[in-house]
Amino acid sequence: MHPDHITINDVGPRDGLQNQPKLLSKDQRLSLISALVDAKVPEIEVGAFVSPKAVPAMAGTDELFADLAASLKNNSSLFSALIPNMKGFELAMSAKVPLMSLVVATSNTMNLKNIRMTTHDSVSVSKDVLKAAKKQGANVQAYVATAWACPFEGKISADSVFSITEQLLQAGASSIVIADTIGAANPLEVNQLMEAMASRFDLSQLSCHFHDTRAMGLANVYAAISAGVRRFDASIAGLGGCPFAPGASGNVATEDVVMMVQQMGFSTGIDMALLVKAADLAIELTGSASGGNAKPWIENYYLNESA
Amino acid sequence: MHPDHITINDVGPRDGLQNQPKLLSKDQRLSLISALVDAKVPEIEVGAFVSPKAVPAMAGTDELFADLAASLKNNSSLFSALIPNMKGFELAMSAKVPLMSLVVATSNTMNLKNIRMTTHDSVSVSKDVLKAAKKQGANVQAYVATAWACPFEGKISADSVFSITEQLLQAGASSIVIADTIGAANPLEVNQLMEAMASRFDLSQLSCHFHDTRAMGLANVYAAISAGVRRFDASIAGLGGCPFAPGASGNVATEDVVMMVQQMGFSTGIDMALLVKAADLAIELTGSASGGNAKPWIENYYLNESA
């Protein structure tokens, strides 16, 4: 393995905040995103175009994009937003969102419970959005959620992941994020699935998303890197959490991932000192995030040594 | 990779307690060891035959072995103790210690600071002990400490590790534990070194020891497993800690390692419910250990699901 470059997409302002008990104001969300931009995080998931009644934490995402365009003219971060369906796509188009994210779960039970559709219908809806996106020149990626395990159906077959990935790529998705939505994957199965994915698809179009629910977040990132993956979701300060495991950690923390891959010799372009400031802000704003497991060491040693 | 069996050596009662601020009584140490025996941990590092003035936490290790022999007649755990030199070996022989552990650090600076000897002299002393052990039929393994990085000399060359390992195996060490003493290794270099070791030595004689200082403990365990290693040190509740990183975690927690490898399909023979009880006891006795990162999930979900 020759360490080269790894791209980090911070999902804290969306996947993170959406799962925090405290609702942040639009200005607080903007300050967190600005802190991530300052730290030169290359990709940031800013919000979601979902019903504000169903997900109050993501209300006003359209205004947030307008504010970001006005206040952060010279930033180099790519901003994205979650879109659940065609209506979300249209709202995101109006808000001039540079990158949109669709989500398809692997299991019928999960899809039926979450969006009252079968997996087949969910893929169809996504294909329609991708078709519209192609026409209008929009950049849309897609998440394959619960890619290793579903809380209702258990282990997911790799064939389901291959099939959904193939359909979404053919329909025009710019990349596919293989997501361990509930933090149930172990590094052995992460490595096996991502090696199989790498033999079927273009690695430059693949990304991974892990939770630290069972403390295996970094091990899973490393297992995916071993298989050739070079783009990862992570969440500042470990913002997020999993409804299935209160008390356990949420998304794998951005500062932990960046530290590990930098130590392994990969470049990320991220400023660690400013990233830790963003983590402090996330902890302060939410009052519940605890920060990555490596944060004490980064603050006490890594930043002092490299200063 | 075909998951088979992984052997866990819990070093909490020695490496763990030695680095805790609170001194435990002999009875408290015995109760922790008994809890690990109850959980069917196959190997347990019980204490050290070192100067009680220099290391008061390990005073009375000889009595501890006598108590263990008297109180735990039918246990299946292999008890070990650290021996720094020939005097330690003789004390351990008198105490009928089934497995003894020597330690050689890779760097001259570390050896000079710790034991006022060069690496060459430290290897010589260890060879003398191994010679005596052979004559007297004792089982002695050896640690190669600071195998990836030394706090004084930085990165350590793989050749140093190969050379020390070769000399100690030839002198009769039953196995070699490659130790990331200061928690500075990353999974890429763990995988590289252990793959190189596996091509030179018998994997069944190799073991690894990791700290979670930079949150990479489990990633490093997985990286070593990928290289074929099947025996690991770990410390109950993450007891331990590193003098170079206060506030950061200590040894990788036994419950985290056992959970990860069991999820990967490996057998360990360990009873997870009783292991969590041992972790609770370690936390209660020391007042400073925090438990493994996966402990909340294990307690709230894993044990409930499998109950």
Can you put this structure into words, describing what you see?
Two copies of one chain form a homodimer. By secondary structure, chain A is α/β, with parallel strands linked by helices. Chain A has a single domain (about 5-305), classed as Aldolase class I (TIM Barrel, Alpha-Beta Barrel). Helix content of chain A is about 45%, strand content about 15%. Chain A is built from twelve helices and ten strands. An eight-stranded parallel sheet of chain A has the order 9-8-5-4-3-2-1-10. In chain A, strands 6-7 form a two-stranded antiparallel ribbon. In chain A, helix 2 (about 25-40) runs antiparallel to helix 11 (about 270-285), helix 8 packs parallel to helix 9 and helix 10 runs antiparallel to helix 11. The two termini of chain A are about 30 Å apart. Chains A and B meet through helix 8, helix 9, helix 10 and helix 12 of A and helix 8, helix 9, helix 10 and helix 12 of B.
Structure described in brief:
Chain A is an alpha/beta fold. The first copy, chain A, has helices at residues 12-18, 26-38, 61-71, 86-94, 108-115, 119-136, 158-170, 187-200, 217-226, 254-263, 272-286, 295-306, and strands at residues 7-10, 43-48, 78-82, 99-105, 140-145, 149-150, 154-155, 176-179, 206-209, 231-234. Chains A and B meet through helix 8, helix 9, helix 10 and helix 12 of A and helix 8, helix 9, helix 10 and helix 12 of B.
